[in-house]
Amino acid sequence: MKSFVSSVSIFTVFLSLLASTQAAANSTDGPSCRVAKADDSYFSVVGVQGTGVHPRQELRELEKDTDMWNLFLQAFARFQAMDQGEKVSYYKVAGIHGVPFGQWDGVTGQEGQEMMGYCPHVSNMFGPWHRPYLALFEQVLHDRAVEIAKEYPAGEPRAKAMAIADKVRLPYWDWAMDPPNSDEGCMPASLRRPTATVTYPNGTTGNIANPLYRYDFHPLKYDDFTPLSEFQFKNWNHTIRFPVDGFALNATSRNDAANERISKQQPNNRDMLYKLLTMYQPFNQVSNKANGGTIGNFETLHDGLHNSFGLGHMGIVEVSAFDPVFWFHHANMDRIFALYQHRYPDTWVEDAAQAKGTFTVAKGAVEGPASPLAPFHMNALGDMWTSTTSRNWTSFGYTYPELMTNPTNQTLTSTLNKLYKPTTQGLGSANTTPPAPGSSVGNNSTMNSTKKATDWLCEVNMPTDIQISYSVRAFLGEPDADPKNWPTDPNYIGQLASMSSPRMNSDVIVTGNIVLTERLAQKHQSGELKSLEKDAVAAYLKANFSWRIQALDYSEIPRNNPPAGLNVTVFSVPVSIPESDDEVPAWDGDVEYNRDIEGNPPVYNGSGPGGTNSTTPTADAAGHFDASSGEWVWNNATESAAGQVDGGGGTRIVQETVTQYITVGAVPTSVADAEPSITAAPATVEQSSFSTVKVGTRTKFMTSVIIEYATFMPGQ
């Protein structure tokens, strides 16, 4: 008997997943809080205790220690191999950050916020929260190293292995420093090799799947990833980096292409990080993108690295922690926070309203130094870590190479200069003609020899309320016509990035900067920029500076209809250039904005949406705006494999989360505009669905839409 379909369709646009209630766990009466639980099986996150305080090493430095590297690789692989159902398995620990949504270690969430992970972004809690998270990961990693060390033959081999295991810590990846091997690029080769060679405790040698290259799900739990059904994570058996098509079932990683993008961005990351570590801003400003640091903030640098991996796991908030590279990236972020803390010990977390919610914290709740860093317990009693109790990183049993000797600020400054000092810190007006070809543009050039100089940057104001990850990219010269080539374009300078998702629902304006000074110095070196006088530089920028907006799917967001509140402004500021390596530059005058430098907006006559050269992905859209007809077009809705059967009536309720593109003036406002085609039967849709759709002055607005429809299936 043939099946027939009788459909009832209900379209609900979820533009806010956050409850309005205050987080029940938010406490201001002490350094920790307790959460009610049915048993006493809290996991105590303590880091590595009883072995001393040992440094987390940079990945490439750790690899030079062959014995330590050998044990580390095997421990990482064993961690990944743990049963995914165990509380401290790689799978469960990674899932704390996002999916699978739900509680960890008995810490329940707020009603209405079930589609969120625990991690805070766009928040003063961003840095402090990740500290016990990394300590938990490091704790389990160290335990696996000890297990392996105990498998060595008794006597000297085992004693040696145990001594090495005592020092095993989570390494960091310093993506801001100049790479030690320029031919290798910024991304260590150890992250890009599919296999690794190890020596086992019994002395034999063999090749293993490189645990730093990817995580293999065992098994892939389809239902855990269906909340992100606008993507294909529910169908990918392992983590993927920077795929060509992020919506393809058979997507593959492109590590070398990701390395090329990250390497191109590295000089600007270095220059920006140097400013953030050497120019004082209070912790609540510099630590995150919610609170308006005028120079910039650490979180946007963090976001840019994530965005460099495109629509792979690392690029999407809710699944990023499954990619091994997440842990080395965040260890570096924690190191950056520690360097800042050591340099500015008197500033730390202060109370701030939350721009977005999490699983346990409501949007708008005030979080501060005594707020719990859920779900991380300090002890079996259920006391939670807070920003206050986790302020000293050494309490978790680790430190960083630059901080091992508790250096003076002068010594630390010298170290930062060696690591990150820009090649050119300012443009001196004494240089009215370009240097001879082949001469140096380094720190000893005339561009830096003068005490007074000019620093050039562009300030970017980025709204987060469009709920997608995107970047503003700056160029000196016209960028390639194809947006996919922008991150590696010869004219590319750098980006300001924002990592987001429809489930985050934040609505702040992020402020940050892209450094122009060094690229201008290079243009002067080549003779293209004839003079370093301010008027000459401004005229050059007016003719050559440009910027573009790019979504995570590599498509262009047209500048002629940008997200509301987005703004890019070139500015200059007087800077005093230091005369020694234990000093840092200082802005010592008024900022001068050059609002007449518009950045050469493009002419949109391409074949893509809005006249761009972008190609709209076919698999991530519930519909699209047809520029030729001026109408909103819905794609056919199809049944998702995710669903459930109502045994009472034989009705299968299928719920499918998709992504739509909304263009101002084209968003559906009635059922007639939005009625989809579901198999052969016309749909009946409730009229109320579209009155709450949020429309701003933006061309591309990505939001989650849940499509529910019932199908009667005789014989089931």
From TrEMBL:
InterPro entries: Di-copper_centre_dom_sf, Tyrosinase/Hemocyanin, Tyrosinase_C, Tyrosinase_Cu-bd
Composition bias, Polar residues: 424-433
Keyword set, alphabetical order: Copper, Melanin biosynthesis, Metal-binding, Monooxygenase, Oxidoreductase, Signal
Coiled-coil annotated spans: none
Reactions catalysed: L-tyrosine + O2 = L-dopaquinone + H2O; 2 L-dopa + O2 = 2 L-dopaquinone + 2 H2O
Cofactor requirements of the protein: Cu(2+)
One Pfam assignment: Tyrosinase_C
Region listing for Disordered, in residue ranges: 424-448, 596-624
Keyword Signal applies: yes
GO process annotations (BP): melanin biosynthetic process
Enzyme class: oxidoreductase
GO MF entry, a single one: tyrosinase activity
Signal peptide per UniProt: 1-23
Superkingdom assignment: Eukaryota
Enzyme Commission no: 1.14.18.1
Protein name: tyrosinase
Family statement: Belongs to the tyrosinase family.
Source organism (scientific name): Didymella rabiei
